[in-house]
Specification:
By secondary structure, this protein is an alpha+beta fold. The chain has 13 helices and 15 strands. The strands form four sheets. An eight-stranded mixed sheet has the order 1-8-9-10-13-7-6-2. Strands 5-11-12 form a three-stranded mixed sheet, with no helix packed on it. A two-stranded antiparallel ribbon has the order 3-4. Helix 2 runs antiparallel to helix 3. The model has no long low-confidence stretch (mean pLDDT about 90). It binds one RNA strand of 90 nucleotides through helix 3 and helix 4.
Length: about 425
RNA sequence: GGGCAGGUGGCAGAGUGGUUUAAUGCACCGGUCUUGAAAACCGGCGUUCCUGCAAGGGAACCGGGGGUUCGAAUCCCUCCCUGCCCGCCA
């Protein structure tokens, strides 16, 4: 969420940001309305506060007279009228502020200057690592997975629905191995604190990271109780310090958590539905960082490197894509996608999305820090990235390391975790 | 799920309708004193919003929301959370 002051004082930069996302035409009415609402709000506040000051003074006078045994009924009646006027003005103020809030929720973050303008055709590959394997003869992961009895897709669909995966035997162990490999790497070598968090969160948390109110239809909601299943550990982890003021010494903060992730994928029916490419429940290790504003860009490079390190450990060829403004997520100011090559399906698969949100999320979740004692609190910058999402990594492993005899070689770094050199 | 007790500033902790601009202590910051430090003393000590070039002025905030009243931390309703007891349970 933007500060209304952004609309008031930096309207040109805001409009330019929306233009770079290709969203200005759509959002211009929202911005114009916000400008009007802001003027209206401030005017109402002035009036209401004058009346409140008058009421406060009058009420005190009533108290004084009563104490002195004098009559105050006339003054009381006047003050009552004042109170009624205040109530009316405050009701309209509440409406105005709700409208402002709603408008602000509709405006995405402004991307950093280094982000190319335009739609996804302007995404740029900034670097790549490893050599993609030639596609010939490589079977798609769902075929290998079923042949080696690592996956049981039909039974997953039976007990839960399509898009819910059952892993079994070495496949199940592979999931656990990936979790341990990634968490060990991030905690031991990258300095992250490990968290284990609830997968059910409340509406406030979902709003803090920006999933709500705009993307409610993509979330699984509990019916008998309030609450949502998290679509990513970003939600509980980023909101961990919501409403708090941190000490400067705590920054940068680096947190990591494994969690299952639940996504309805509304509107994505029929797209990449085979195998592990797009599922409703999957596992992921997430990285979250909080930092000072001046460190935002550097911290994004650092975080992206931590996600890349997992792919390098696994020996999977990948590329780093800088998303253009129009393809950058709603709350994000700059995003790198990590795409791993899966020769069986012949596609680059997105296994991570690393973003810096500037103060956009922090303002929503109200996460601040005090740079020095006595200074005013300011919003932190938040960052996050998957490192990594499991299913597509598993798909890439089953395809990239596939052998002519149908077996799959386990990459070195994973062997002690899986307890085998190859899956056969 | 039922009952009881609570939720006040960074922390502790007063305050049950009107000089409360929320006492007091601790912590923290500045100063005096000191060679330096400690102690002592003096001063400061929150967040948000509106207004103003500024100095300043004003408003709101005692778990959230609503109500009663001229006036609410204080009374009422409701929700949330914490602790304890009972019940249930992996």
């Amino acid at each position: 969420m933007h500060d209304i002051r952004m609309v008031r004082e930096q309207a040109a930069a805001l409009r330019d940001g929306m233009r770079r996302r290709g969203a200005l035409d759509q959002l211009e009415p929202v911005i114009a309305r916000l400008e009007a609402l802001d003027r209206e709000r401030r005017q109402t506040i002035q009036t209401v506060e004058e009346k409140k000051a008058a009421r406060n003074a009058a009420s005190q006078e009533v108290g004084r007279r009563k104490k002195a045994g004098e009559d105050a009924s006339e003054l009381q009646a006047q003050t009552r009228t004042l109170g009624e006027e205040i109530a009316g003005l405050e009701a309209s103020l509440t409406e105005t502020e709700a409208a402002i809030q709603k408008g602000l929720y509709d405006i995405p973050n402004v991307t950093l200057p280094t982000v190319p303008a335009g739609d996804e055709t302007h995404n740029t590959v900034v670097r790549s690592w490893g050599t993609p394997r030639a596609a010939d003869g490589v079977k798609p992961h769902w075929e290998v997975g079923e042949a080696l009895k690592l996956l049981d897709l039909p039974r997953g669909a039976k007990i839960s629905g399509s898009g819910f995966i059952v892993f079994r035997s070495a496949g199940a162990r592979l999931v656990r191995a990936l979790m341990n490999l990634m968490l060990d790497l991030h905690t031991r070598e990258h300095g992250y604190e490990e968290l284990w968090v609830p997968v059910v969160v409340n509406r406030a948390a979902m709003t803090g990271t920006g999933q709500l109110p705009k993307f409610e239809e993509d979330m699984y909601a509990l019916t008998d109780d309030q609450g949502f299943l998290i679509p990513t550990a970003e939600v509980p982890v980023t909101n961990l310090y919501g409403g708090e003021i941190l000490d400067a010494a705590q920054l940068p903060m680096a947190l990591t958590a494994y969690s299952p992730c639940f996504r309805r994928e509304a509107g994505a029916a029929g797209k990449d539905t085979r195998g592990l490419l797009r599922v409703h429940e999957f596992d992921k290790v997430e990285l979250v960082r909080y930092c000072r504003p001046e460190d935002g860009a550097a911290q994004l490079e650092l975080l992206t490197g931590h996600a890349e390190a997992v792919l390098q450990k696994l020996g999977l060829p990948y590329r780093v894509v800088l998303l253009a403004a129009g393809d950058t997520g709603f709350s994000s100011a700059m995003t790198y996608d990590l795409e791993v090559f899966a020769p069986g399906v012949g596609k680059w698969l997105e296994v991570s999305s690393c973003s810096v949100f500037t103060d956009y999320q922090a303002r929503r979740a109200n996460i601040r820090f005090r740079a020095a004692p006595g200074e005013k609190p300011q919003f932190v910058y938040t960052l996050n990235g998957s490192a990594l999402a499991f299913p597509r990594v598993i798909a890439a492993l089953l395809e990239h390391y596939q052998q002519p005899d149908g077996s799959v070689v386990v990459p070195e770094a994973l062997r002690s975790y899986v307890g085998a050199d190859s899956l056969r």
